Amino acid sequence: MLACPFRQNKHHVCINVICLFRPAEMSWDFILPVCLGDLVKSGAVNQYVVQDVLSVKQLPSHINSFKAALRSQGPLCILEYFDTAYSVLQHCRTVDVAVKEDTLELLIQGYILNISLCLSQGRKKDKVAGKGLLQWDSERETILQCLTQLLQLDIRTLWSLSLVEEEFVSCVTCCCYKLLENPTISHVKSKSTRDAIIHVLGIMVKKYNHMLGACVKVIQLLQHFEQLASVCAAAVASWSSEYGVKAIVGEIMREIGQKSSEELAREGSGVKAFSSFLSELSTLVPETMIPNISVLLTHLEGESPSLRVAVCEVLGEVLVRVLSGDKLDDSARASRDRFLDTLQEHIHDAHSHVRARVLQVYARIVNSKALPLCKYTEVMELTVGRLGDKSVHVCKSAIQLLAAFIAHNPYSCKLSSVDLTKPLEKEMAKLKEMRDSQKEQVPVAVITAADLWDAMKPELEMTVKAQLEPGSEEEDNEDEEETGGDEERSDRDTALQIAQFLRESKYRKAVGLCMRAHSLFPESSFFSDLADLNAETLIKTLATLFKGPEQVTPEAVSSDAPPTPQKEGGGNEGGESELKKQEMLVQYLKDTESFALQVERSIAVINNMLYWKTTTVVQEAVQFCVTAFEFSVANSVCGVRKMLPLVWSTDVTIKDSVIQAYRRLYLNPHGDNTRAKAQTLVDNLSDLMIDASLGTVQCLEEIVQEFFSSESALQTSVVQVLWERFSGKRETKALHRRAAVLLLGMAARAEREVVLSNLDTLCSVALGEKVAEDYLLARDTLITIANITDHVRQSKGVPFRLPMDHHLFSCLSQAIADGLVQSDPHWQTFMEQAVRLIYFLAESPDQLCSRLLQRSAHLLLEQITEGGEPNQSQLQESGSQGSEEQVNCVSLAQVLSLCGAVAFWQVSHLERSVSAELRRRRGEKEEKEEKEKAPANKKDANDSCVEEELGLVGASAEDTEVEFIRKICETELLSEGNMLSAFLPLLVKVCSSPGKYSHSQLTTAACLALSQYMMISPAVCKDNIRLLFTVLEKSPLPVVRANTIVALGDLTVRFPNILEPWTPNLYARLSDESASVRLTAIMVLTQLVLKDVMKVKGQVSEVAVLLLDPEPHIASLALNFFNELSAKDNAIYNLLPDIISRLSDPERGMKEEDFNTIMKQLFSYITKERQTESLVEKLCQRFRTAKTEQQWADLAVSLSLLSVCERGFKKLQECWDCYSDKLTEPGVYQPLLSIAAKLRRRAKPQFKAHVEDYEKRLTAVHTKGLENVDNEEREQQMGDTQSQNLQTPRPHKSVRKTTRGRGKPKLDDSDLVTPRKSRSRPKPAITFSSDEEEEDDAVMAESETPKVTTPIARTRRTRLRH
């Protein structure tokens, strides 16, 4: 709302109002009064005067009438109600404030409406005043536009001397500034009003000398209204550009630049407003800010981060918008380089927000191609360093800048340092040859004779003047003696001699010889000018002799004149230009290689950021990997593959980012037609599939499946290209054929008919007669076929299976049997996939596999019969016979592998397929029964509903099915009539006799098969668990130990009660000498512990040791184990005391540095105050049972790693007795002293005194010993008591003597909190017998077998995992 304050002379208000309200057609004459009383005096005809002065009581009613008249009649009603306004002024001191305010409001409204009426004569009267008096939002814009038009008129004649009064300027501008204070003025809906205000103020600044006032007001608005930063910036930019008042920008910048740090500290929100204002202003008028930027640079050294950011953004806008391009003059280039150096310094600013924004400014500069080429390497190196910044925002900005560097690099579209090495070496060799050839050429004079003459002329003139003086005759005589024989020379030889003297800088001799030559050769043309001997003629003659071509004969010039570059250097210009071009090319290649190396260095860091917890950083890392891959940066494909598992991320934004990235890289090919696009897409996906791990392939399935699920014109063409590659219609590499068939399998997950309709083609191409040539292609073909099964597609309904006599199964049986007697290393994986597919797809897979086992056994027996029984002695007899036995061992190993695979998938088939089919049939039967008959009566219906709610109906039936499957596994699978039972004794014999069966492949296959047999029933597991752990402890083969750990992990899930006593043996493998075994052990134990299959016990200390494993991957897995374990409530807190005791055990012999490193990591998970307090007490109690000085020191170090608070410190004081007798040891004293030092730094004054007392006590006990300190305290207390008794006799009381820190009553030995020795059984000692002593029995003794101590209750039987 517009407002105008009362002036001191109130009659001026009325005068101004009447002047503006007086219409042209009225016959009244208004004479300006000298004083207020003149308005009631009539001194002329038709003079307008006040007719009646109202009383105070009459004013309210007349004001209401005035208000109604203004609403209906408009501003002209003032002529009728002027007496009312005058009466208010007359009774100003006695009338109520409300009356005065209402009157003023009416006058202002009428004033503004009258202006609108006068300036818009074409409008209708009711249109102006029809919307009501107080509808300011609708009238404000119109009034401001009218005011703008008024101010643009020449109104200076309204004032004396044609000078506009400052009061008028203030009246208008104050209204505008008051409007700007409206909180909604910066909203979009207020844009028109905002622009109108800016234009009004612009006119005032330009025409009415309001610039300084506007500067002050803008600063004040920014100080008090932070939201006006953008509005003020737009206003100042408009005044500068549209109204030409550019000086106002500099004035405001100087005002902000002169603010001191103390002033800015008091500003509060004003600092943010200043920063936003400068940033906004730089985007609008950057060129106007350049002359005054220096006043802002002082804030770069200030304490305000927001102002530092603003100044850096100003520099960035200036560099992008003004100081860019190649046409800058020297001054602009200097300014540009200075601004870039300033920005570069703040990449390492102390505040993370400033560092992040500076990197963003650089990203804008790079995207705008405004960064000079000479700065690329330096800024790039600094940016790569910021990838290790502690701030997430800085890392994100650094990634964005690096991506901008790659996308807008001026070097090459392919940034591979490997590809650049050879061209660089080639061009450097070429440059060296060019330089060598350049050196071999005769040096060419670069300076002409005229240039040399100009250089020597000043000194030569001085020599001539000296020679022409009278006192130089003696010197001339000396020169004549030195240059004797002048008469014998000709005039030409003399001229050449003079030129030679000049070239040798022998000016005095040259001048003397020249002076004598005229007397010797007066008629010679060389010296004819010397007839009049003076300085001028002498210099002229010398110049002619030296420069030669003009006066001297051609023979003289050609014989001895100095060569000129115009004649002799012209042939060399081409060579020099070529050399320069080659040098520029070599430098370009060097810069490109350096840039590529820095990009490759950043890739390794950014790839690790793909798994950060910050979503925005992960998204930026994904985009960077895509950009790097598009520019063919070396190792960029590693990042593309590493981000692939993120398709399983629970964060939708990350998952979408990865999917979009792969679509951009692989699924949106470029080509002239659909066929070309399909070829490109297949090539891209095939390259990604080559050498990809199993996890990568599984992740890629998700993306490819989504591609085939969506409607795309490329799908048909892509499938056709894949079939052509697989079938061999086009000449294709073996790796690309395998990739093609796997991609077909991924497509089959979305559409089954892609594979099902071409099943015969798959069998004939990959599983036919040539299957032995490429078992890997056959294996991948089986994986593809498996994608059409219900197990993979997770289909519900009638299971999809093929009959036993299908061509596919005959091909599989034949391929397995043929490969059984061969030694192909890839047959094993093919066989496993074949057995899996049989159980997934065949109608009666058990019968098929039984026949397959019989056929395999016959083939093996035939081979053994031909070659003899395989044993160790026969293998060493002869070379030929040894090779035969080697084949027998391989064949036996493959048969045992087949047995294990059949046993595993048979159990899986029963518990998954058969069980699922039983449930499906039961469900169909129940649905059919429910439809056939309704409940007999209401009671039966109610009972049925209650049973359904309690879950009793399905539970009992399901338990029956589970019991049925369990009974089959325990009684029928290994019965005498089953083929599987025939191989179990052989497996046990091979595993228990490592001396006799020492072939590595045979041992590996037998142990794996035995573990798969143990999955069948608890009885088989109990019978052979001791043997399996013996193999785990004894086997010299790391692969056997690793496989056994995996098998034991599966057995732990299936039979936890049987495996629970053997838990320490599993943890023991964490310290295995083989890195592969340790890696497998940590992975298996992590899964068992985090899924609550295995109880977490003190053996976790073995996992803690792996935090320092030399293998980085193992150490990272151990760290991940504790990170995940810390998410479980109090898990690490409960384990810490036991971990500390085990790691500080003297028998382990752990180094102090290693212990400290491990504990530092583990204690970082303790964040709750209650846990810290409890751990302080527990660790202090451990001092009582610790026996060695090293254990004391470890406990003290552990205490110092806790974030001890006030409550924890009190607990530390209460446990003084536990550790006070160990304080003489430096290893105990120093950590405890550091605890006190940390507490003292952040303690309050009252608590600080207690901490200082504790420090003094620690120091006293450390230096003097505990007994001496206790004696001193007792003596001091005894002395204090006696002095008090002597001074004031008191009645005798039984006073209990107390000692500081020992205020509690004395405890008996039975009260001490000392851990009791548990009656745990001794650790089983496993004795391994050598092969030479006991070859047939390498199993643990019965006494060494752990007994079940903690049965794990299970409500339902755990089924076998797939």
UniProtKB/TrEMBL annotation:
It comes from the Eukaryota. Residues 1278-1288 have a biased composition (Polar residues). InterPro entries: ARM-like, ARM-type_fold, CND1/NCAPD3, Cnd1_C, Condensin_cplx_su1, Condensin_cplx_su1_N. Keywords: Cell cycle, Cell division, Chromosome, Cytoplasm, DNA condensation, Mitosis, Nucleus, Phosphoprotein. Residues 1039-1199 form the Condensin complex subunit 1 C-terminal domain. Residues 1290-1304 have a biased composition (Basic residues). Residues 471-485, 1330-1339 have a biased composition (Acidic residues). Regulatory subunit of the condensin complex, a complex required for conversion of interphase chromatin into mitotic-like condense chromosomes. The condensin complex probably introduces positive supercoils into relaxed DNA in the presence of type I topoisomerases and converts nicked DNA into positive knotted forms in the presence of type II topoisomerases. Belongs to the CND1 (condensin subunit 1) family. This is Condensin complex subunit 1. The lineage of its organism: Eukaryota, Metazoa, Chordata, Craniata, Vertebrata.
